[in-house]
Design brief:
Length: about 130
């Protein structure tokens, strides 16, 4: 069983930055692929970014490429999402997700891949 706790959300002006953190319980964090999803009011949950277990390959949705950076610290059981140049359309609840050892051919953008989810942290970007 893995528990995920997100933190770091808040209110920021457009163009500003935030760093989200997701702390995971458990002793096998390094074997989990970790991801960030977000959900805006009235919209479906959408993929933001993922970082694979093993080599730590990073994946991003096109709308955040060049602005967001995902990273992980296996010693601290934590995954981060550095968000720069924030835009009002980035406003959403951001969720951390985890899946143990998904096959290399997995579609990391699909929320159904992930078994564990955090409760989310609100990010609000004002214009």
């Amino acid at each position: 069983q893995v528990q995920l706790v997100e933190s770091g959300g808040g209110l920021v002006q457009a163009g500003g930055s935030l760093r989200l953190s997701c702390a995971a319980s458990g002793r096998t964090f390094s074997s989990y692929t970790m991801a960030w999803f977000r959900q805006a009011p009235g919209k479906e949950r959408e993929f933001v970014s993922a970082i694979s277990w093993g080599y730590g390959n990073a994946y991003y949705t096109d709308t955040v490429k060049g602005r967001f950076t995902i990273s992980r610290d296996n010693a601290k059981n934590t995954v981060y999402l550095q968000m720069n140049s924030l835009k009002p359309e980035d406003t959403a609840v951001y969720f951390c997700a985890a899946q143990s050892n998904p096959p290399y051919y997995s579609d990391y953008t699909q929320p159904t891949l992930y078994h564990y989810w955090g409760l989310g942290t609100q990010v609000t970007v004002s214009s």
